[in-house]
Amino acid sequence: MSSSTYIRPESLWAASGFYYQAIEMNVATTGMYTILSNSIIDTQGFIYNNSFNTSYPDENLMSFDDDGAGSNKQFMITVVLEAMTKYILFVTTYVGNTLGTFSIIGLGPGTINFLESKQNLYKLQTDTLREFLSDKMQYLSKRKE
Hints:
Elements: E1 5-7, E2 17-27, E3 31-39, E4 43-49, E5 61-65, E6 76-81, E7 87-93, E8 102-107, E9 112-116, H1 127-144
Antiparallel strand pairs: 1-2, 2-7, 2-9, 3-6, 3-8, 4-5, 4-7
C-alpha cells in the first residue's frame, strides 16, 4: 500500500510531501483528554472535529501541537472531547519526506477508542505500521478499561 502525503504550505519544506496517518477516535465520557505521541521521529499532531481534508487543513481543526511533550520532539494535545462525537487524530512529521513508527498514548476520564479512519482520504502508510498501530491501540484501550 502506498503512503499518503499532503503539502503543508506554511512549512519550511513547502515543496516536500508530508506523510501522515489519520486515526478516528471517540470517547465514552465527556472530559479533558491528553493525547501524546511516542517516537524517534519528530511528530506533529492535529485533532479535527468529525473530518479532515488535506486540501483545507484548517477546516474543523480543534487543536494541534508540535513539541508540547518536551524536548523529545513529540506532540502533546490537551483538549475537551465530547462523548459520542467523532474526532480525527492526524499524525504527521515536522520534516517533510520522513517515515517512521510511532505510538499514541491517550489519557483522560474515560476510554478512548482509536480506529483506522474509514474516510477515503486516509490510507495507512504501510502494512507494518498498520499492525504496529493496531497492537498499540488495542493495548491502550484495554489498559483504560
